[in-house]
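Discussion board: Methods & Data

I've been asked by a reviewer to show the raw model output for two of the constructs in my manuscript, not just the figures. I'm not sure how much to include, so I'm pasting the format here to get opinions. Each protein appears as its amino acid sequence followed by a line of discrete structure tokens. Is this the kind of thing reviewers expect to see in a supplement, or should I convert it first? Here is construct A:
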Amino acid sequence: QIQLVESGGGSVQAGGSLRLSCVMSGHTSASYMAWLRQTPGREREGVATIDLGTGGSMYYADSVEGRFTISRDNAKNTIALQMNSLVPDDTAMYYCAARNRRVVSAPLAARKYPYWGQGTQVTVSS
């Protein structure tokens, strides 16, 4: 089992930045982690992923490429999502997700992740 707790959400004006954190704990170690987001009326979409078993290989959704950065801390039990140049379309509930095996295809798909945090709200105003 893997437990995930997100933090760092909040309200920010367009053009601003936020940094989200996800703390991982539990008996089972995660091999692959991701940030996903969901807005009411829309499907949950993958934002960024990081492969903890291959030196930290990362993958980003086209909509956030160049603006968001996913990373891990030195203890390798926490991941972060640095979000820069935020726009109103980034407004969503952001979730941390994990699995204990590598993702080899469709890494941004929510169905790949059996473990989820409770989410942290990000609101970007004009």
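Construct B, same format:
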Amino acid sequence: QVQLVESGGGLVQAGDSLRLSCAASGRSFGLYTIGWFRQAPGKEREGVSCFSSSDGNTYYADSVKGRFSTSRDNAKNMVYLQMNSLKPEDTAVYYCAAAWNFYGSSWYLPSLYDFWGQGTQVTVAS
């Protein structure tokens, strides 16, 4: 099992950048797939990106491709989400999540993840 804590959110202007961090604890951290999700008020939780523990690849939602990137440092038990060229529609609570299994093309489904952080608020002003 792993425990996850997000940080790095805040209020920014459109076009700005933020880097979110996900601090993890757990001896098996490196065996988990780590995903980033976001949820805006009144909307369903949306998959943003994923760092696969199985193939080492990263995956992104179409809405963030070219703007967001995720990276992982297993030695430090940290996962990062670099967000560039932020838009008002990126405003949401952002969560990191851990999945024991890798679901390939289904990486973006929240129901497939086992552990979640508490979330960090990202607000992008227009």
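Answer (T.O., handling editor elsewhere):
This is acceptable in a supplement if you add a one-line summary per construct. For B, something like: The mean pLDDT is 93.
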